[in-house]
Design brief:
This protein has about 350 residues and is mostly helical. The chain is built from 14 helices and 2 strands, in the order αββααααααααααααα. It folds into 2 domains: about 240 residues, no CATH class; about 120 residues, no CATH class.
Length: about 350
């Protein structure tokens, strides 16, 4: 199954790159994101390439199902998740072209997350058996809504979604293929979307030629959130928290801080850790490089948690993950001036010094 996942990811990457290339003239003409005081880009830049990413993932997943003779349940699961994703993509496309109000965005989000939770998730799967099924599913919808908006809000600098979602998606594809025999559909979703993000990456490298837009970040967050939910339902809650932990930490602290200051949390701002990191002197490349290293470390810790199947090990890996994220975020917000040379760290320092330039 792992070999199939790799082939699907490769196909999705090639399709995504081709579709982004073909869409660029239209995006330049009709979908320019113009910078404002809260933006991280300085020049008008096309947005909307997320539609190419989503379509590439859908085509690659469909091909994987067709050639792998997948079970009917997997076909149904993939179809439901992609249908809900298209609903969010349509909402995001309208918001990219003409900003929508909070309610106009919230209603389709509730519908899309509800479709995934109630229809795509195996009916017998339980995360908290002590709770009544309807209550557990409603809590899952609330968590899903939060995660969808969390990822959308985090899509603020070049490559951050490619890394912040791509690494967890790749880890999900591996973990599901190794440990979740009944999760083929979720694995296909993770592999196809992760591959599609790889195909998009060259166009989004700093300084980006094109952005995902809400048309991409919203469905990407839904598919990633569903994969994490499936991993948690399989008994690996710690791993499901570890994989997106940087996003959870950054957005969680930012939200708490904004609420404490009485700021409208739904409006654009520059309070995220990655934004404060660029304000502190890090280049975009240095910021995303540090997030990449952190996310790879988190993926390895999630693999340890799943492979050991021990409550004690899962708790330990989660604790270590929290400590790593806290240290990394402190380093980011302190800026490059806070990094003092230590024995054996000269090459590391030189790399980040070059990235800063």
């Amino acid at each position: 199954m792992l070999t199939e996942m790799l082939l699907i990811a490769a196909a999705a990457a090639a399709l995504s790159a081709a579709l982004v290339t073909s869409m660029m003239p239209l995006l330049r003409r009709y979908a320019l994101a113009r910078p404002n005081a809260r933006s991280s880009h300085l020049l008008p830049t096309p947005q909307g390439a997320g539609l190419a990413v989503l379509f590439a993932a859908m085509i690659a997943a469909a091909a994987g199902i067709a050639f792998a003779s997948s079970e009917l349940s997997s076909m149904r699961e993939v179809g439901i998740v992609f249908a809900a994703s298209l609903l969010l993509a349509a909402t995001g496309a309208m918001d990219d072209l003409r900003p929508l109000g909070p309610l106009a965005k919230l209603v389709p989000q509730i519908l899309a997350v509800g479709i995934v939770v109630f229809l795509a998730t195996p009916q017998e799967a339980r995360l908290i058996p002590a709770l009544p099924v309807p209550l557990e599913r409603m809590l899952a919808i609330l968590a899903g809504l939060w995660f969808v908006n969390l990822v959308n809000f985090m899509d603020g600098i070049d490559w951050i979604t490619v890394i912040g979602c791509g690494v967890p998606l790749a880890a999900l594809a591996v973990l599901i293929s190794l440990d979740l025999p009944q999760g083929e559909g979720a694995g296909l979703l993770a592999a196809s979307l992760g591959g599609a993000l790889i195909g998009f990456a060259p166009f989004n490298k700093p300084v980006a030629r094109v952005f995902l837009g809400d048309v991409g970040s919203l469905p990407i967050s839904l598919i990633l959130g569903y994969g994490l939910y499936r991993l948690a339902l399989a008994g690996h809650l710690a791993a499901a928290l570890i994989l997106p932990l940087y996003y959870l930490w950054d957005s969680g602290l930012t939200l708490i801080g904004r609420l404490a200051r009485g700021e409208p949390f739904w409006k654009a701002h520059r309070g995220h850790i990655y934004q404060r990191a660029t304000d502190a002197g890090w280049s975009v490349t240095a910021v995303v490089a540090q997030i990449l290293i952190l996310d790879i470390g988190l993926a390895l810790l999630a693999l340890v948690s799943v492979s050991q199947g021990s409550t004690l090990v899962s708790a330990a890996t989660l604790a270590v993950s929290v400590a790593l994220v806290a240290i990394a975020c402190k380093r980011l917000t302190a800026g490059p001036a806070s990094m003092t040379p230590r024995a054996g760290s000269a090459s590391w320092m030189r790399w980040f010094a070059r990235a800063k330039k």
